[in-house]
Amino acid sequence: MGIVSPGFRGRGRAPGGRLPPGQYLTTDFPVLSAGPTPRVREEDWTFTVTNEAGKDYNWSWRELLALPSETPTVDIHCVTKWSKLDTSWQGVSLDVLLADVETAADYALIYSYGGYTTNLPLEDLLDGQAWIVHRFEGEELSAEHGGPARLLVPHLYFWKSAKWVRGIRLQDEDIPGFWETAGYHDYGDPWREQRYQGD
Ligand SMILES: Nc1nc2c(c(=O)[nH]1)N[C@H]1C(S)=C(S)[C@@H](COP(=O)(O)O)O[C@H]1N2
Ligand SMILES: [Mo]
Question: Rounded to two decimals, what is the model's pTM?
Answer without folding.
Answer: 0.94
